## 1
Amino acid sequence: MKILGYESSCDETGVAIVCTEKGLLGHALHSQIAMHQHYGGVVPELASRDHIRRALPLTREVLEQTGLSLSDIDAVAYTAGPGLAGALLVGASVARSLAWALDLPAIPVHHLEGHLLSPLLAEPRPDFPFVALLVSGGHTQLMRVDGVGQYELLGETLDDAAGEAFDKSAKLMGLGYPGGPALSNMAQKGNADAVVLPRPMLHSKDLDFSFSGLKTAVLLKMKELKVKYNDEVPEEQLANLAAGTEAAIVDVLAAKAIRALKETGLKRLVVAGGVGANLPLRNRLLTQAAKLKAEVFFPPVALCTDNGAMIAFAAAMRANAGLLPENLKNPSFTVRPRWELSEAGALY
Ligand code: KG4
Ligand code: ZN
C-alpha cells in the first residue's frame, strides 16, 4: 500500500510517499524559515497562506521523484494536530479533498506520533519496547513505547519546551530564528564553563522538566552584559552565554533520559523532534547510554525537524499494525490544535 502524506502543522510544508512494505519512496519539503525570520518567530496567518501555495507543487515534485502517479496512491495521510489551527486545516483540506476525489481512505496522524516513530525510518531500526525522548519546539516528553499506538507518558515539561528554551534564549541574545541551530552554532565558538546557568529540576526524583527559569537566567545575564558593554555585547561574550545555555539544556535532557532508561530497565533510547538534531545532545546521549550498555537511535538528521515522511510513515505503521478502522472515507473532518499523544488513535 502506498501512502501519500502531508505535514503542515507549523512552518514546514512536507509531502512524502511511503510504501507499507518498502518504506520511504520519496519526500519533498518547503521550509518557511526565511519568510518568518523577519518577524523573529512564526506568524500563523502567513504560515497558513504559504502552506496553500506549496502543497500542490510539492505533491507534483514527490510524484515526479518517485515516478508514480496519483492513480498509484492507496491512501492519503495528514497531520491532524497538534499545531497551528489554520496551518493544520490547509494540509487536512488538501489531503481530504484528494482522498475524496480519488475515492481513497484519509488517515489523520498525530504530529508527535510522526516524530516518535521517525527513528524507525533509519537503519538500524530499534525494536519495541523503547524509551523515547521527544524534544521539539512545542513538546518535551519522555515516553515508554511498547508498540505502535502504545505510548505511556513518563515525564514532561512543566512549562517551556526544550526547543522553546533554545528559541527564546536565542531571541534574547539577538541570534535570530529558529533559535536552536543559531544558538548551537554560536555555542561552538564559546566556553560553556564561562557562564554557568541553572539546570532546573536536574536532581528532582521524577522525569519532568522545567525550562522557564533558564530563560529568565539568560534574560538577566543579557541585561547585565548590555549594561557592562553599553549595548554592544562582544561576540565572545555572546558565544560563552550561548555555550552555557546549550550545556544547561543538554545536561538536563540527558540526565532525565538516562534516568528513564534506569527506571524502566529498557536498553533502547529513541530521540525524536527538532532538538534531536542538536549534536552536543546526540553525543552526550551516546556516551552516557553506552555506560548503561544501552543503544541510542536517532532519525536521519534531515528528518528530525518537521517533514511529510514521518506523517506518511506513521500512517503506514498504523496500517501494518492493523490499527486503521474501516470508515476512513467519511468526508467530514476536523483538526485538533491541542491533542494528547495518548489519544493518537481517537480521530477516526
Ligand atoms: O520538531 P520541530 O521541527 O517542530 C515542532 O514540532 O516544534 O522542532 C523545532 C524545534 C525548534 O525549537 C528549533 O529551534 C529546534 O527544534 N532545533 C534545534 C536544532 N535544530 C532545530 N535545537 C537545538 N539544536 C539544533 N541543532
Ligand atoms: Zn514537530
Note: The domain at 2-116+304-343 is CATH 3.30.420.40 (Nucleotidyltransferase; domain 5).
## 2
Amino acid sequence: MSKSLFRVVVFSTKNYDQIGLTEALGRSSDAAPISFRFLSSRLSASTAELAKDAEAVCVFVNDTVNSEVLKILHDKGIQLIALRCAGFNNVDLKAASELGISVVRVPAYSPNAVGEFVAAQLLTLARKIHKAYNRVRENNFDLQGLVGIEIRGKKAGIVGTGKIGVATAKVLKGLGLELFGFDVFHNQEFIDLGGQYLSLDELLSQSDIVSLHCPLNESTKYLIRSETIAKMKSGAYLINTSRGALLDTQAVLDALYSGHIGALAIDVYEGEGDLFFEDRSGAIVHDPILAKLQALPNVLVTGHQAFLTDVALRNICNITIDNLSNFYYQRPLKNKVDPK
Ligand code: NAD
C-alpha cells in the first residue's frame, strides 16, 4: 500500500474532529499520506456504502459496526476500523476478525477528563447548581430548596478501577472522600491512593456515592438493576459516565421515585444511539424514560461529553493518526483490539 494515498472515511464527524484530525496530521513528522473524507453521518447498514474508494474508516462511540455493516465495508475494500474512542462495545470483533479487518482504538486519551467530569456532576447535584443556575437567570434569588450536602468524608464506591476509575479516585480523594473499589482485577495504584477493595455487594451497601467505570460487556450489562439497587445505601448518589446499558434505566427511575437512589448523574444513556451528539431541540423526542428522568430535580443528564476536553481531543487525534500510519506502514499495531 506504501506510496499511494491512504484514504480514510471519517463517520460521525463534528467540526472539532475535522479540525483536530487535520491539525494532528499536519503536526506528525512520520504520518502516512492520509486523505480524509469527513462525513457527518453515523455509520450504519444504510450509510456503510459511503465508505467506497477507501481503505479505512474512522468511527466513534455510537457508530454501528455489526456484522452486517462489516460485510458491506469488507465488500468496499475496507481493511481497518480506527475507533477514535476507548470503548469498543459497538464493534463485532469476531466478525471483523473473520473478514480480516483490523480494529484499532484510542485506549486512553485523558482519563482525567472523565475524572474531573465526575467531580463536576457530583458537586452539581450535591450543591444543586443546576437548580440555582436556572433560578438566578430568572432573577429568582430565593435559596429555599437549595440546601446542599457536603461531600468531604463521604464514601465513594468506584466500580471498575482501571484508568478512568483511578483518575476519578484521585479527584475524589482530593475532595476528601473515602475510597472503596470493586474490580475483577486489583490495581495497585488504587490501593496506593488509600482505596479499599470490597465485594460489589459490600461496596453498594457502604457507599454514599457509586460511580461506574467498567466497560460494557455481557457480564456488566444491567450491573445496576433492581436487585443490586436494593443493596445500595438508601439515598446514595449514582453516577454513570461509562456506558448507558450498565444501568437498567427503568429500575433506576423506579428507585429515584421511591427515594432509594438519592440522586443520579448520567453522561451516557442506554437509548443514546438515536439521540446524542445532535441538536434535537426542535424535534419531538419519543423517549418516555428519558423524559421522566429529565423531569426530576435530582437528576443530571449530559450528552456523552465527559471525554470532551482540549487535552483529550488533541490526544485522540494524535493517537488516531499514529494508529492509521502504523497500519499503512505495516508497523506493529499497539492499539489493536484483540478479538478475544
Ligand atoms: P480500563 O480498561 O482502563 O478500565 C476498566 C476497568 O473495568 C478495568 O480495571 C477492568 O478490570 C474493570 N472491569 C471489567 N469488567 C468488570 C466487571 N465485571 N466488574 C468490575 N470491573 C470490571 O478502561 P477506562 O479507560 O478506565 O474506561 C472505562 C470505560 O469508560 C470505558 O469502557 C468506556 O465505556 C467509558 N468511557 C466513557 C467516556 C465518556 O465520555 N463518557 C470516555 C471514555 C471512556
Note: The radius of gyration is 21 Å.
## 3
Amino acid sequence: MPEPKSVLVIGAGLSGSVAARQLAEAGHRVTVIDERDHLAGNCHTARDPETGVMVHHYGPHIFHTGDRQVWEYVNRFAVMMPYRHQVKARVGDQVYALPINLHTINQFFGRAMDPAQARAFIAAQSRSTEPVSFEDQGLAFVGPALYAAFFRDYTRKQWGVDPARLPASILKRLPLRFTYDDNYFAHPYQAIPRDGYTAMVAAMLDHPGITVELNRAAETVTRAFDHQVYTGPLDRYFSHRLGRLGYRTLHFEHERVAAPWQGTAVMNYCDADVPHTRITEHMYFAPWEMARFTRSVVTFETSAQAGPGDIPYYPIRLLDDKTLLARYQALAQRTEGVTFLGRLGTYAYLDMDVAIRKALDASAHLIEAFARHARPDVFPDAA
Ligand code: FAD
C-alpha cells in the first residue's frame, strides 16, 4: 500500500466525484468541496416538493454511452432505468420529430417518399462543398429548406452568433436519417438513474476516505494538500489574468402545470420569434413513475452570453477562445500539483459518459504516479 496522499477535489460534479471515489478506493484521503449547496454539479436532480416530479435543475440530462466500462461504473452507484429519448420540434404551427428522419422529411415536404427516394431528394438539394462552418455543414446535410426551418434560427438563439461563424463540428452531433428511427441517441446504453443523478453522485462520494464540504469555494481554502484536482473554470483558476474564455449561459424558468402539459420530454422551438430554445417536461424522464403524477413541472430554457456572475454552460470555442485556451493550457502545464479536469477545467463540451471516462483515466494516472513517487502530468487532458 503506497503512502496515502491528501487530495483536494474542487467541484462535486461527475468529474470531481468519480476522481474522488477512485482516489479514495486507492487509499488516498480526499476532501471534496463545491461552492454550490448540492452535489452533482450540472447533472443535479431533486424532487419538486409539491408535485413529486424529479426535476433536472440545469437542463435535461440523459445518460447514453457506448463505453461498457463507464456503463458498468455508473451501475455500481445507481439503478439505471432504460430510457429512450425522443425530441420534438416546433416550426411555425407544426410539430416535427428530431433528429431529422424520414417522417420529418415527408411531413415537411408533404410527400410519402421511401428511404431511397428521400435520400436522392435531399442529395439534390444539398450543397456539397467542404464544410467549414456550421452553416456549410447544415446546407451540405439537409439542403436550404430544412436548414432554415430547423437549424438556422435555433442555432442563432442557442449560440448568439451567425451560424456562418460557428465551426462545422457542432452539427456533427445531429444525424440525418432516411428511416423512421427517431431515437435521439444511437448508443447501446441509454438510461436515467431511478433516484436521480444527485443520489448517484452521493453514492459515489459515500466512502470513508472522502470528506465533502458544500458551500465552499476553492478560493477560501487555506489548508495545504499534496495534490489538487480542479474541475472549476480554467480561466477562473488563474483569476482570469489573460482574459475570460467565452461561454453561453442558460436561464431556466420552472413552472408547475397540470399533467400532462406538452406530452413529451423535450420540445425544441426553432423559430426566431420565440425566445426560448426548448421546453422540458420532467416527468417524461421517468416513465416508470409517470402515471402517478397529476401535476407536472415544465422548464422554459433560454440561452445568453455568460457574464462574470453567470453559470458557464457551453464553451463557445470560437477562434479567439481557442487562442486564449492555448495560453491558459500553457499556464496549466507549468502549474505543479494540480490536475485540471472536467468540462470547465478543460474548457470542452463533455457528455456525462465522456466526463466519467476522462475522470477514470486521470485518476488512474494520478494513482500510478503517486505509487511511483513521480510527478503527475499537470494537464493530462490538453486538447
Ligand atoms: P460540472 O457538473 O459543471 O461540475 C463542476 C462543479 O464545480 C460545479 O458543481 C461547480 O459548482 C463547482 N465549482 C466550479 N468552480 C468552483 C470553485 N472555484 N470552487 C468550488 N466549486 C467550484 N451530458 C449527457 O451525457 N447527456 C445529456 O443529456 C446532457 N445534457 C446536458 C444539458 C445541458 C443544458 C448541459 C449544459 C450539459 C448537458 N450534459 C449532458 C453535459 C453534462 O452536464 C456534463 O457532462 C457534466 O456536467 C460534466 O460534469 P463536470 O463535473 O465536469 O462539471
Note: Residues 87-172 form one domain.
## 4
Amino acid sequence: MVNLSKISSKGKFMFLAYDHGLEHGPKDFTIATMDPNYILDIAVKGKFNAVILQKGIAEKYYSPYKNKIPLIVKLNGKTNLVDGEPYSAPLCTVDEAIKLGAKGVGYTVYVGSKFESIMFKEFSRVTSEAHSKNIPVIAWMYPRGSAVSGKENSKEILAYSARVGLELGGDILKMHYAGNVNDMRWVVKNAGRAKVVISGGLKEREEDFLKELKDAIKAGCAGIAVGRNVWQAKDPLHISGEIRKIILE
Ligand code: FBP
C-alpha cells in the first residue's frame, strides 16, 4: 500500500480544502477568504495535515509554504454553471502535481453520473500513475446525477460509492456523512482498507458541525477534508483546534 505518512498524524487526516473558486465561484468568498494566503496561513497555524489546491493556485501561492504545510493538488474539477449530468474533467497530471510539490493528489468521481465510465477510466489511470510514484490518491466519491438523484446521502448509495473508490484504487475516500453513526459505519466497512474522511459541506453552526464530525469518527472515519466550515468561521483557528481534538485525542 502507498505510504500515507506525509499527509497524516497517527494515521488520521485533517485536510483543508480550497478548490471552491472553481467548483462554486466567488459566492463562497469574502475579500479575506478570496486570498489564498489567508487560507494557507490557516492551514499552517491550524496544524492541518495538508492543504488542497488546484494547480493554478498552487503555482502562484504555494512556494513560500513548501516547508510549512504539505500540498495535495486536485487534478480535476468543474464549475457549477452547467446543468445536466456532472462530469469533472482532468486538468492536471500526477507529474505536474509532483513538480508543484504535491505529497498527494485529489480526484472527484461522480458515481451515478451518465459520464461515470469516463471518470472511472480517467481516475483509474490517475491511481496507477500516482501509485507508481508512491503518491497517495484522495478520491471525492460523490454520488451525483439523475440515476442517484434524491439518494445522494443514502446508506446504500454512499456505501456503493465507497466501494467503487476502493475498487478503483483510492487510498483515502472523501465521503458525505450518511446521517447517522450506524449507516456511516456501513459506508466505512465498504471502503475496506481505503480510509474514509468526511467532507465538510455548507457552513453550519459550530456545535452541529462538530457533533457530526464526532459521530463520523465514532463510525470509523479517519478524519476530515473540510473547507467552508473552517475558513468561513469567525475564528478559523479556534474551530481548527476543536477539529484536531476530536480527530486526534
Ligand atoms: P467544504 O468542506 O467547503 O464542503 O469543501 C469540500 C468540497 O468537497 C470541496 O473540496 C469542493 O470544492 C466542494 O466541497 C464541492 O462542493 P459540491 O458538493 O457543491 O460540489
Note: The two ends are 26 Å apart (CA to CA).
